[in-house]
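Morning F.,

Quick status update on the modeling queue. The single chain you submitted on Monday has been processed. Sequence for confirmation:
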Amino acid sequence: MAGLMVVAAAALAGGLFGNRVQAVDARDEAAVQQFSSALATISERYIDEVPPDVLIEGAIRGMLRTLDPHSNFLNAHAFKDMRIEQKGAFYGLGISIQKRGDELTVVSLIEGAPAQRLGIQVGDIIAEIEGVSTRKLPADSAVTKLRGPKGTVVHITIEREGLEEPLHFAVERAEIPLESVATAMILRPGIGYLRLTKFSETTSDEIDRALSQLKTEGMEKLIFDLRLNSGGLLDQAVEVANKFIDQDRVVVSTRGRVRGSNHEYRAEKSTPYRDLPLVVLVNLGSASASEIVAGAVQDHDRGLIVGETTWGKGLVQTVYSLEESTGLALTTARYFTPSGRLIQRAYSDSLDVYLHLDPRVADQSEPAPSGEISHTDLGRSVLGGGGITPDRVVRFEDFSELIQRLRSQYTFFNYAKRYVAQHPEIAADFKVDDAIVADFIRFVVEKEIDAKPEALSADRDTIAWMLEREIMGNRYGREAEYRIQLNHDPQVAAALTLFPEAEELLARSRRVQREVAERQ
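Structure tokens below.
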């Protein structure tokens, strides 16, 4: 959800006050009176006059901080943002941000949006907006400053771990597409690729259309990419898992103390994709609804999970509408994978540690054991606590500091625009050669970009495929650009080699099912 890291895993529900508030009053009238007295004293005697709505919102946020990291108050701006993200479109950068202490941090990116194209990354700290520090700026106020009319430019300063100097971006606002399916294509003969960025009201229908088209184009196997998908609606997670999980199998179960929160969600129908060999890509940015899907696939031995350990969010939020177009995203249940795993990462010791990206993921060669051991349908051991541990851990290496800086300054994009203008006849099998790389180096020097020619030459291979991606994207569109990017993605490369194992896993599962059926 743009502006706040609130990933509602349940549909909107109405009403919070009324009888429930009266019940609280009856249980602890003295505590309520204490709160009212404190509010009145502050309003009357504080050194400065403070509007009552500001005090009330602060009190609500203070209550929620005593609960868990995902219960959150949605003021009018945030509540509107939530509705927009689920149903509409807006003009902005295409990032989700959260205030972590005093740091305004990027927590997710929308595929193909201006921020992602410029190389802004999850974990980046937005230190300044239009030259003004964000340290004391609330997240919702920052969202208001980052959004604006289509085609206007906002200047931001980024601080990134590992870089000594900040990065400066001039980002042109654009209409942000809110479709869930970022791309769907045949990546290799018979192998489909589908990237899902979130779980919104239209996700299940979008995936149906994408899978149907891929099947028409000859798909026999699928790489399902859930990386950097921070989640969304619970019912959509169940419907997406239903595309691949056998009918009547448990997808996820929820448990809470309020009426209706204890529920077991099952796949309700058979689909044409239940025997499709499947590899699911995940990383630390995969959370909530993404983990529900990955957990169901893993627990039912339906496919292989590849990449890096997921975030570890096993809490369900219900969004209640309050007064004055505000809302409350309140944790009302925990969810459990089909094998009974609670994958929620610990947050009781330090919310600061919980909310920051876990540095061990970037350094690990093997997943660190965490939580109780559960077992899949075939008896494979899987871990609870701390997210979904992949069946195959594959790290994603970051670019050099030089490449990151060139991306932040539009260098590849601007060169590609110039190149395509000078060479309008670009073949579909275009490749960047040494002459183009040399021309790009001259372009960098001409623009007085802080990059020495010898350093550029050392990054020659990366420069070549990034130029190829931008040039082909400029000439042939987003799919051509994305295809080149995937061809240099180490986690996708690993997934392509693992289909024999995914097929064997599926075959074993089917054999066991037949044996069980025969014994009955």
